[in-house]
Protein: RNA-binding protein
Organism: Blautia faecis
Amino acid sequence: MDKDEFLLKRIRELANLSYQRDIVTFTDFLNLNEQNMLVSLKLHQIGVEVKLFGGYEHAERQMAAFFPGGLGFSWDYPIDCLKIEPKALRFSEELGHRDYLGALLNLGVDRSVVGDILIKDKEAWFFCLHKMSDFFIENLIRVKHTTVLVSRVEQAEEIPEPEFEMTNGTCASVRLDALIGLAFQTSRSSMVSFIESGLVFVNGKLITSNGYEPKEGDIISVRGKGRFIYDGVSRQTKKGRLGVRIRKYV
């Protein structure tokens, strides 16, 4: 059984358990491709509702919750947010997403127990399964050469808002390949293989058509590249090209 088949089997088990016992069940964090696989199962047809959440609005990696229709009690996702900060700020390095993720995975955990990682200045916030919080707090002591402290975030207001890089440009039409090329400063043709290979998602839904036209406000994710928000058309040039606005997550 390959990884995808195992995931689908596990999802069905969790959905059936929720329905049979009238309880809420949860997956670990799912990447965009796994979320797309989940949606394709159409679990509502067996009487089970599904909601996705990653700890904050518009999270890329999200946890699925399964619950029977008409559930009579409230529940929370078993997600914690932890903050990583240098023990001595003056001696800390400039660290990126790959550095923080590498340090977490080097502790021997699976990628599925860690959600998104947000970085601001020389601090980082990451989401994880509640049951893993104490483990990370006790065992994550270094990121590259920087000694760090890890603490639990108690208030949602402490979590930084995502930061964006604004991009304005023109394209002949609002096609998916054109917007991706503009966002990542490369040619439209070079992005075709990403789309056709199943690496591009719009609002978490897999899109494999180069000519797909996103709508204003759509979140477009390209695995291995990043993600951005399409903010719509701002103008039309004398030559008929469309001026578009893009906000890329940084």
The chain has a mean pLDDT of 93. The chain is about 25% helix and 35% strand. The radius of gyration is 20 Å.
